[in-house]
Amino acid sequence: MLKIKDCTFSYTRKGEPTIENFSLSLEEGGVYGLLGSNGAGKTTLLQLISGLLTPASGEILFDGVSTRKRLPSTLRDMYIVPEEIDLPPIKLDTFVKCNSPFYPNFSMEDMEHHLATFGINKDVKLDGISMGQKKKVALAFAMACNTKLLLMDEPTNGLDIPAKSAFRKFIVESMNDNRIFVISTHQVRDVSQILDHILIMNNRKVLLDCSVAKIQSRFKFTDTIDQELINKAVYAIKGLGGASVIVPNTDDEDSELNLELLFDFAINDPDKLNNCLSAESSNH
User: Fold this and answer.
1) Directed axis angle between helix 161-174 and helix 108-118, to 10°?
2) Who contacts 238 (Cβ-Cβ below 8 Å, separation ≥6)?
3) What integer is the mean pLDDT of 141-167?
4) Mean pLDDT, residues 268-284 taken together
5) Cα separation of 232 and 126, whole Å?
């Protein structure tokens, strides 16, 4: 389990905190989507979780151990893929030989499988490939490390359409009941189908912390021109001749999650969103 307890962090001593009195609990067996506007603190949060930054107050515990200590026993079971990939000017096989020993669950078989799916030659030199290819290499290595905690910051940026599909497949294949995946992204359409849990943050706090299963059991998402349905919506964005709406799910039938619409609801009226979830849950 990953527990974030009352964390506050600022990049300057007198500056506004990027994260303030921030708390979350992440359970094993979940793919968490971390969403937020630019500047909401998503990247900062990932770096705090991994111990690359130290909170001014509060603590972050991974399996009961503070990540700020960066103990080898902790680091060997977590991996972070940053948005900007910077790889050394060496061959890929050399990179793997130098770095894989730090991760006892690393699988060369998995690495070769991921590289092949991404169309990357394992003998490639890392300073001779594009940024998109570097992202593929970084993701392939990260997933081959088979760590319990995998943090990914904008993992689909720079990937072409086939690579995005391969990434989603890797996540589904790699997830098990003992692992925690956190995907921080603006590209919600790239990942909406593989998320188990939605975290939306803004203004230094959590706006939504809810499982996809619960969201879909409470709400239906649809596009409609039916004015009666629009009037029943708990949230709607009107367009030409109709609207994208979120309505109460009264017949227990799941609809496809519209993550962009949910995000807009959370940013504009988080209290109403959470009240709707709480109120509806009492009726089931």
Assistant:
1) 150
2) 230
3) 93
4) 77
5) 55
Full-model pTM:
0.91
Check whether 232 has a pLDDT greater than 80.
Answer: yes
Whether residue 217 contacts residue 54, with contact meaning beta carbons closer than 8 Å, is answered with no
pLDDT per position as a tens digit, 32-46: 999 988 778 899 999
Which helix H or strand E contains 219, and what residues bound it? strand 219-224
Closest by Cα among 282, 281, 260 to 211: 281
Looking at residue 283, its pLDDT comes to 44
Q: How many other CB atoms are there within 10 angstroms of residue 234's CB atom?
A: 19
Tokens of 245: 């709406």
Would you tell me how many other CB atoms lie within 10 Å of the CB of residue 214?
A: 15
DSSP string covering 14-75, please? Answer: TSPPSEEEEEEEE-TTEEEEEEE-TTSSHHHHHHHHTTSS--SEEEEEETTEEGGG--HHHH
| pLDDT for 204 beyond 60 | yes
Residue 281 has pLDDT above 50, yes or no: no
7 has pLDDT over 70: yes
- Short-list 24, 71, 25, 27, CA closest to 178: 27
Q: Specify the DSSP class assigned to residue 203.
A: T
For residue 234, give the 3-state DSSP assignment.
Answer: coil
State the burial class of residue 240 (Cβ atoms within 10 Å of its Cβ: 0-12, 13-18, 19+): exposed
